[in-house]
Amino acid sequence: MQRPSRRPRVYRAAIIHLWERPGPCYGDGHRAGTPAGLSPWSRRTGPMALPTQWPPPEMRTKTTTRKRLACPKGSTPSQRRAYLALHAFCLAPSETAGLRVLSGYAGTGKTWLAVHLIEAACRSGLKVAVCAPTHKAVSVITAKLARPVRAKVWAGTLHALLGLKLRETHEGVMRITLDRHPKTLYFEAYDLVFVDESSMVGPDLLAYIERFVRSARTRVVYIGDPGQLLPVEETPVGDDRQQGLALGEQGALAPPVFASGAERHDLTEVVRQKSTGRPHPIIQLAGEIRRYIEGEIRGTFGPEAIGRYLAERAGEMPGVHLARAIQTAEGAVTLRRRRPAKDIRVIAWRNRVVDERNRYIHKGLSALYGQDDGKTFDEAPFWPGETLIARETLYAFHCEVRMAERTPKAWEEALAPVEGDGSPRGADRERRDALVDLIANNTELTVTLCEPLRHPYLDIAAWRVQAQAPGAEPVEIFLARDAGEHQRLVRKTWAAYRAADHRSPEDFRRAWAVTRACAPVMHAYAVTAHKAQGSTFHYALIDVADLYGMAAGGHADDYHRALYVAVTRAAEQVWLCL
Known about the structure:
By secondary structure, this protein is α/β, with parallel strands linked by helices. The chain contains 19 helices and 20 strands.
């Protein structure tokens, strides 16, 4: 019988060596390396060896299996579901774009969960931006990020990230427009964008975001509370409708972001305190208001219902107090004297009530703030160290600009609208930017100087105030001693301009300069519910009697949302002033 050629034998032996472990080699007739008992060509083979697995366990390559994603420790069931879904969305391939909403009422852990998602995205090497409608809201979430993570993310306002600025029409109405610098990174440069306090984002901003998402393939996670107030657009200067809270449309159920069509992930369980095993008393109260917002309870959670609710839980809700509305401002003065390091605010509805509370508290605290070389100026509108808030968008002079440079022409170039006939353009706009800074509505600044003088442009009795926002350069504004005198001058100037046969650009600029020569600012001791949105205070004194006026006017949903916002601004204690 003819032996097979060597080539097939070697070839087949190689195959055997690849798949089966060699048995012992016998010297009688077996070539070295041929497995014993497996060669079909030798008659002197030993008994057939049972095949064993090759390679041996110690040489075997372990097959990798994807580990199950671990959710953050201590998360609730809804937090786990939201984290798994949003983690997959955030770390999706770079060409994947889209919008998601992380929704939850106060106390459900939205910020806590968002921080974990941001940290996971940064570990994966994504370019991440964190923004919000206001600087204060941005600082709340970024303060909770670990320092190494904070250094990797861009943080700022939503307007700055989109490259949007407020510009005026010829009539002085503010409009949002794109105004970008070629060397600055904007929304499209980031893989992932987190928008906190998205309940405050209006339809115009949402439209810009959706436009850039489609063009840049950026992923966006909105973080918001469906129980908060509906966003309102800034009203034109001099609009008589400003009441402190613009009422929403009848039947409006939630802020626009929750109706944007983006996939929504709801957090439903309230996080409980480790010390008591129950939610914080303020969160319990917010939860009761939430039931009215959602329609679970019909009627109105007015002063009487609030009194009954707390009476039934006497001793069970430390940190939640009842007070009389007439004692609201007096209580704020007492608390600020006893707790000067605490951020304490009165929250009301109408601007008139807010101004009354601010005047009372300012006067009551004059002994703490109003010292200047041992002499107290009782009539001063602000003391150094106090906080002021911009009522609306305003222009303020840079402090380094000397008084001699602020000629009447410079005032008119700086304060006139940027569009329309006679508006500054090109080199004039650069000159304007060198003179003044645009201070956004609701910006808080700390006062460093307040002194009396004659107004350098209007030639009326005035106050010169220097103030500074966190992380910004100091600015200077002017206030009329008699607000009525300034308003009379404004009306007279505009009447002369409109009555003229030929309306010149110079007269137009002068009318606007007269209008804006005194800045619209207010104290920060008391604020409207809408201005309080997005902020967190240590203590809050809520003028429920004033807020309830909304419900009496047929806007119960707005009342409940304003009350919910006011209650959830307090981190430690809240007083309900009935």
